[in-house]
Amino acid sequence: MTYDSENIFAKILRGEIPCDRVYEDEFALAFHDINPQAPVHILVIPKGDYVSMTDFSANAPAELIAGFFRAVGHVAREQGLEQPGYRILANSGSDAHQEVPHLHIHIFGGRKLGPMLAR
Ligand code: 5GP
């Protein structure tokens, strides 16, 4: 799948659309989800044109992969989620209901999160 540079997260990265920013470094941007599914619901996106985890893991440079995942862990710690815990999730493709075609990791926390998958 080719990257659509007009997707909403690309526009957020370019500063064309505002976001409620939580954290930013050279590799990643983290911001609150516009439609939170838990008391804490943050999205972390890499600074690069990657559609999904499949695309990112195959094509991103190692430094960006490392920096992106460090940013995810940093945000979780900074939000105080290490204890009592949190969940990360990345939807990829249509079976997973990926809505925005720019890789994003959801961080959920702030309540008991229940079983891993909705049935
Ligand atoms: P997906 O289903 O692709 O894994 O998740 C996309 C997420 O992006 C959804 O949870 C949705 O609420 C969030 N989202 C969609 N548009 C925007 C937006 O413009 N701003 C923010 N902050 N979140 C968005």
Written overview of the protein:
This protein is α+β, with helices and mostly antiparallel strands and 119 residues long. The protein has one domain (8-109): HIT-like (HIT family, subunit A, 2-Layer Sandwich). The chain has three helices and five strands. The chain has helices at residues 8-13, 53-59, 62-78, and strands at residues 21-24, 28-32, 40-46, 86-89, 105-109. Strands 1-2-3-5-4 form a five-stranded antiparallel beta sheet, with helices on one face. A hairpin with a 3-residue loop joins strand 1 (21-24) and strand 2. The termini are far apart. The mean pLDDT is 97. Bound molecules: guanosine-5'-monophosphate.
Structural class: alpha+beta
Going by CATH, the homologous superfamily would be HIT-like
Strand order, largest beta sheet: 1-2-3-5-4
The number of distinct β-strands equals 5
What is the CATH top level name? Alpha Beta
The SSE order reads HEEEHHEE
Terminal CA distance: 28 Å
Over the alpha carbons, how many angstroms does the gyration radius reach?
14 Å
* Bound molecule types: guanosine-5'-monophosphate
What low-confidence regions span 5 or more consecutive residues with pLDDT below 50? none
